[in-house]
Design goal:
By secondary structure, the chain is of the alpha/beta class. The chain has nine helices and ten strands. The protein has two domains: 107 residues, Rossmann fold, CATH 3.40.50.10090; 125 residues, Rossmann fold. The strands form two sheets. The protein has a six-stranded mixed β-sheet with strand order 3-8-7-4-5-6, sandwiched between helices. A four-stranded parallel β-sheet has the order 2-1-9-10, with helices on both faces. Strand 5, helix 4 and strand 6 form a beta-alpha-beta unit. It starts with a strand and ends with a helix. The relative contact order is 0.16. The mean pLDDT is 93.
């Protein structure tokens, strides 16, 4: 029986979150505890990559973290981002987040309606003359780089923030019946904190193909993953609890 669930994300800011509905409906305890944290990169670390942001005419963003740390580093480096800079974003939500830092103009902000990077690439190809700068996390892979290479686009990647494990304290209880992961880095953090982790009866839910792949790579049993009927994590959890009373 599922009594205590660890969701590896920050606690929702709204009381209308479906996670809280699960607590009311099934009497389960849900603990929101990120397995990873995002740390800023000091300017001196960025300079070691020998990249000049002003050499580029366009920036590619795949997350809001990328936006925050791009503009924070520009400020620290005293780089004045020109108004002519173009922004290519993975989704409309990410694109709209740019309003926090720039005067939003559709003529220089581009995004696919699907929210998929594969659909952003053709938009970038229409602007083939641009020199693209791609802010990345320290925990990046080469998937995007390879796609930009395949599209013959001029681009440079650089790390602008750190994704690191969020360590558990020695006295912090780990007595969960279910663990919910949203990224491969969350899986890495679990195994770093608990090198001898034994899953046994602990249920694991994963969101995203890469997260599932990483869990299975380390022989973890993925009990819940999105389906056409169960697309959200709360829906997956509710279905699992109903089937395992």
């Amino acid at each position: 029986m599922t009594k205590k669930i660890l969701v590896s994300q920050p606690k929702p800011q709204t009381e209308k979150s479906p996670y809280f509905d699960l607590t009311t409906k099934f009497g389960v305890e849900i603990v929101f505890r990120p397995f990873i944290r995002i740390d800023a990169m000091p300017a001196k670390d960025f300079r070691q990559q020998r990249v000049s942001i002003l050499d580029y005419s366009a920036v590619v963003f795949s997350s809001r973290h990328g936006i925050d740390h791009f503009f924070a580093l520009c400020k620290e480096l005293r780089v004045a981002v020109p108004e002519s800079m173009k922004y290519f974003c993975k989704s409309e939500i990410i694109a709209l987040y740019l309003q926090k830092y720039i005067q939003y103009r559709k003529r220089k902000v581009f995004f696919p309606l699907t929210g998929k990077m594969d659909d952003l690439i053709p938009i970038m190809v229409k602007h083939k003359s641009e020199k693209y700068f791609v802010p990345q996390s320290s925990a990046h892979d080469d998937e995007l780089k390879n796609k930009l290479d395949a599209a013959n686009l001029t681009h440079t990647e650089a790390v602008m923030y750190y994704t690191v494990p969020n360590d558990f304290g020695p006295d912090e209880p780990f007595d969960y019946d279910m663990l919910v992961f949203f990224s491969p880095e969350g899986i890495h953090s679990l195994l770093k904190n608990f090198p001898d982790f034994k899953q046994d009866k602990i249920a694991i839910a994963c969101l995203g193909a890469k997260t599932i792949e990483e869990a299975e790579k380390y022989n973890l049993r993925v009990d819940m993953q999105p389906t056409a009927e169960l697309r959200s994590v709360p829906a997956m959890i509710e279905d699992y609890i109903k089937k395992h009373k």
